[in-house]
């Protein structure tokens, strides 16, 4: 990805910093862009407003490489901005204050951020929910709220829920239950803790609920599971 700034102020750009967390972003000056690009890059073109000289650069890019995707990143939104982007051939528009969720939505609109293992996009999307996965692993015995996990990834709960499902192939609730059942099975095999203690250690605060969930997913009660495993050993 290429970041080109046609704004003459060296300010902290939130959208740019968020991009750099998960992508290789190369800074290129407006004067170097046409000579360095190959036509296969995704370009983020930073402009002040609809009067920016960046729109002339956008036209030049599109004339040379029509298929190149160019996203306009604006500082000031005015009435003519969208029209100028459209006329110059821009592919999308985002604010310099765009957060990770808004950037992800931009990628989706551009069709460049699909779940594709060969291109590495899947790994990028998994990285975006990694903070939540770490919290789950480290706090599996504690209450886990979707809102807290979404906040850790800097996403809204609704978007986080959808993204988690897309990346992991299961809902957040299903993922947490599986992790807790895996822990419970290990505890049932390795020691002689009471079933109620195993339930608590695995994050199930209600032993009756634990027993119902365990039987639904494992096919037998926790006590029966323990007896079977001990008989085998």
From TrEMBL:
Pfam families: HTH_18 (PF12833). GO terms for molecular function: DNA-binding transcription factor activity; sequence-specific DNA binding. Keywords: DNA-binding, Transcription, Transcription regulation. SMART domains: HTH_ARAC (SM00342). The keyword Transmembrane does not apply. One of its GO terms (biological process) is phosphorelay signal transduction system. Residues 1-111 form the Response regulatory domain. SUPFAM superfamilies: CheY-like (SSF52172), Homeodomain-like (SSF46689). PROSITE patterns: HTH_ARAC_FAMILY_1, HTH_ARAC_FAMILY_2, RESPONSE_REGULATORY. The keyword Signal does not apply. Residues 130-228 form the HTH araC/xylS-type domain. InterPro entries: CheY-like_superfamily, Homeodomain-like_sf, HTH_AraC, HTH_AraC-typ_CS, Sig_transdc_resp-reg_receiver, Tscrpt_reg_AraC-type_HTH. PANTHER family: ARAC-FAMILY TRANSCRIPTIONAL REGULATOR, HTH-TYPE TRANSCRIPTIONAL REGULATOR EXSA. This is DNA-binding response regulator.
């Amino acid at each position: 990805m290429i970041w080109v700034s046609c704004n003459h102020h060296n300010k902290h750009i939130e959208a740019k910093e968020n991009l750099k967390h998960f992508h290789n972003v190369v800074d290129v000056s407006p004067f170097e862009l046409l000579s360095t690009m190959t036509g296969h890059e995704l370009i983020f073109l930073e402009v002040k407003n609809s009067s920016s000289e960046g729109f002339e650069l956008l036209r030049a890019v599109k004339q040379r490489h029509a298929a190149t995707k160019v996203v306009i990143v604006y500082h000031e939104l005015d009435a003519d901005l969208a029209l100028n982007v459209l006329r110059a051939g821009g592919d999308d528009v985002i604010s310099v204050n765009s957060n990770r969720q808004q950037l992800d939505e931009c990628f989706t609109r551009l069709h460049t951020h699909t779940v594709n293992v060969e291109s590495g996009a899947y790994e990028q999307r998994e990285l975006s929910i990694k903070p939540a996965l770490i919290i789950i692993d480290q706090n599996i015995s504690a209450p886990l709220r979707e809102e807290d996990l979404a906040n850790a990834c800097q996403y809204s709960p609704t978007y986080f829920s959808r993204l988690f499902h897309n990346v992991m192939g299961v809902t957040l609730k299903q993922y947490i239950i599986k992790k807790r059942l895996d822990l419970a099975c290990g505890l049932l095999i390795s020691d002689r803790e009471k079933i109620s203690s195993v339930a608590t250690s695995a994050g199930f605060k209600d032993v009756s609920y634990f027993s119902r969930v365990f039987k639904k997913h494992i096919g037998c009660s926790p006590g029966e599971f323990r007896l079977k495993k001990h008989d085998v050993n």
